[in-house]
Every structure is written in structure tokens, then in C-alpha cells.
Amino acid sequence: MSKTTLKIAALAGDGIGPEIVREAIKVLRAVEKKQGLSLEIVEAPIGWAAIDQEGKALPDSTVALCKKSEAILLGAVGLHYRDAEMPKEKRPERAALLQLRKQFGLFAQLRPVKLAASLAHASPLRPERLEKGVDVLVVRESAGGDYYAYPRKTDEVIEVKEDGSTAHRVRRAIDTTALSASEIERIAHVGFRAAWLRRKRITSVDKANVLETSILWREVVTEISGQYPDVTLEHMLVDTAALQMVLRPWHFDVVLCGNMMGDILGDVAAALVGSLGTLPSASLGTLRHGRTFGLYQPAGGSAPDIAGKNVANPVAQILSAAMMLRYSFGSDPAAKAIEAAVEKVLAAGYRTPDIAGPGEPGIKPVSTSQMGDAIAAAIR
Ligand code: NAD
Which domains does the chain possess? Predict the structure, then answer.
């Protein structure tokens, strides 16, 4: 049987991006061989690297490559020490990342947070809160809601003091939150499908005691749940969810939320494991070329403080590549092979500096490339 070639655009970007993307490609090549896949990986510039080469954070040639591809594996973009060189709208965070999200309609962000047993020391939680593990997937609506709706503006209004004595002008800011039922439906389907592949539990987060958008959210999510009878749904207010995630992290499987709530809860979940260097993410869109198009990248940024030193942790990037195999290419076995190799290498004590616990016995301090080598070897 002839193999289907999976087309990947690899955009390394800035800071530690090139170092960690290199290791992810190394691991992808190992899993390609082992699992009998065929991967076409083409690299292209993005971010400050692209500005230096082609004068633009997202060159047309890079967009053209992404359009021909079925998934994007991205390192990171942005170098805050260069911000003064460009107006905000031309800097990589907006001109490249937001542009890609818009161009490819990436409306669902997935952030899995799993604490490897061997990295329990990196978590800020007490050991008894970790006994039952941490394995949460935050599914966040990332194209609508709080961050994109209009009107949004800052103006001035006349304010009258409570005693009515004086009136003066004060600045006022307005944001809008708007979500349509169809926007809620499509993200709910992503959440329920993800839960179905996992432990079949979903916690839908909202603020339905206060916000209109949350009341609609709760109604629509409940309606959609009827299509997934195997998945157990619970609703939770966002403040309770933040509290419970810290007190009882084991309670959560998939956490489904709107844009701003997901932004915050994604970071609460990330804090549970202690290091950004191990956390992957995916931004999913609709079908392209018959597959779910996605952009896969670490939860962290370009980490300029450690760039070029061969000390960055490549695990987040490598696990992002595993998510790509699972969600865009439907290859759960290949994704699991990478995840198992990462767990094995961490359990064997391999540590980049960010996850090396003080005084942890029997660890093997490694560089970025040595960590990539070890994970690739664990796959072979
Ligand atoms: P950051 O995530 O880059 O770094 C925060 C801290 O985490 C740093 O101490 C860094 O060394 C550490 N860290 C991050 N990834 C690591 C890894 N793989 N291994 C070991 N340590 C790691 O956040 P920042 O410093 O606030 O931002 C730096 C730049 O990255 C900014 O220009 C920002 O705009 C950009 N950024 C980009 C993205 C993205 O491309 N998606 C996301 C966040 C920030």
C-alpha cells in the first residue's frame, strides 16, 4: 500500500525556536521510520528571522508554503529587546502569529497539561495534591468572544460626583463580549471529541450567573452534549474552576472555555507542572486538504534569556509535534510513541536545566540537542 505523504511547514522563528524545532524534526524523523509514515517537512522563515531576511515577519513565501501544507510546526516568535525597531502592528506577535491564526481560521486552542511522575518536584503543589496525577486538557475558544468583539474603544464621559456637586470628564474604556451559538457549537464539538479520546469527562466553564454570553454558552454546550452520550458533562463557574484546579487537579479531564477564561485557566493549569519547557499547544482550524489544519507550538515563547546556549528544553516542541500527528494526521499510535519516549527519557533522569530539581539524585544533566537525541533514540 502506498503511503500518504504528510506535508508540514516548519517555522522555527526566533530565540530558542530554531534549537527546539531542530530537535522536534529529529524526533519526527525517528517516528516516521518506526511507524512507517512519510513526512515532507519544509522549513521557512517567520518572526524577526524573516524580517532580517525578507523585511516582513510573515513573508508571502511562508504563507504560500503553509497553504500547501497540512500543518504548521512553529517554534516561537518575538524578541522584546527588538520591539523598538518596528511599530506594534508589524512586530512578529501581531504581523505573524495573529495573522496566521486569522488566515487559517484557527479557532480552537488546545493546551494539554500533564505532570510526568518523575517531574513532581517541579510542581509548586504539595505532594499529596499530586498523588492522583495532573492530566488536564484546556480547550479554549480563540477566535471570538472577549478579545475580538466590537465596539471596543477608550473615550471620555462626564462623571457627576455622588453628591451632585461637580461634574468632570473622565476617561472610560469599553470592551464587548459577543459569541454566536455557532461559534459555541464548533468549539464544543472540539471539546467533546477530545474528551471522547481521553477519559470522557468534560468541565464546561462559564460565568452564567452574571454574563449573557455565558448563559448562551451553557445552553448550547448542554445541547451539543446530547450528541456525545459517552462523555460526562459538568458546568462550573470560572472562579470555582480556578480554585478547584489548584486544590483538586485530578478532578479535571477536558476543560472547555471561552477566550479570556481559557487564557487564564490555561496558565493556571500550566503552573501546576512548574515548567513552560514541557508544555505543548495546538491551534486548530477547520478541514483543509481533508485534514484538520493546525498550528502546533510550545506554550512558552522565544525565551531570549537562554537562546543560542543549547540549554532550552525541547520537550514542549517535541510534544507539540506529537499533537500534530494526533490531531492533524489522525495518527494516535505515532503521537503515543513520542509521548512514551518523552516519559521514558524523563523517568531515566535526563534533565535540561529548567527541570533539574535541586539535589535530585541520579539525574543526567543534558543540553537541548542531547535531550532530542535521547528521545529520538527511545523511539528507535
Ligand atoms: P517566554 O515564555 O519566552 O519565557 C519565560 C521564561 O520561561 C523564561 O525564563 C524562559 O527562559 C523560560 N522558558 C520558556 N520556554 C522554555 C524552554 N523551552 N526551556 C526552558 N526554559 C524556557 O516568555 P517571555 O520571556 O515573556 O517572552 C519572550 C518573547 O517571546 C517575547 O517577545 C514574547 O512576545 C514572545 N512570546 C511568543 C510566543 C509565541 O510565539 N507563541 C508566546 C509567548 C511569548
Answer: 1-123+274-380 (3.40.718.10)
